[in-house]
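anyone else get weird line breaks when pasting these?? whatever heres mine. first is seq + tokens for prot A
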Amino acid sequence: MNEDHQVGTPVYQIKVQGILDEKWSAWFSGMAIAYETDSDGASLTTLTGVVIDQARLRGILDGMWNLNLTVVSVKRIKSEKDSSHL
């Protein structure tokens, strides 16, 4: 995750079914890509990163739609910098 973002800038975690190659990171606004397996043994790709506004989030989700990816979850998470100012 990029640690030089401004305090209060939202960080999102988006999970999709299957394995998404890391080359797609740049296409999805430089989000970090990680892999996991759900409780049923299915592969998931987790994209995590700063999303500066709702228009950017919409663009990322539209890109996933265009690639016919199945979105499992979209979650706004707090960065360490955000939580230190609560």
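and prot B, same format (seq, then tokens)
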Amino acid sequence: MGKIAMILSIIGGINWGLVGVGTLVGGGNWNVINAILGDWPMVEAIIYVLVGVSATWMIFGCRCARCDISSDAGM
């Protein structure tokens, strides 16, 4: 679950970074998710929700010993 959350968070971060750059340079809409799924607004909304849930998972995530990164590093 953690790896999926990380991948979705990275995709969301890159997408929002491109949206910001597009706005700053006046280049219009650089929203990659919207460009790919423009004809399917419901699927686009689901992707955004999954990215939000993934970011929340990255913040609060699982705290069990098996998922704890610091326990794997021998700390």
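btw re prot B: The chain has one domain: 2-72. The helical segments are 2-24, 32-37, 41-60, 69-72.
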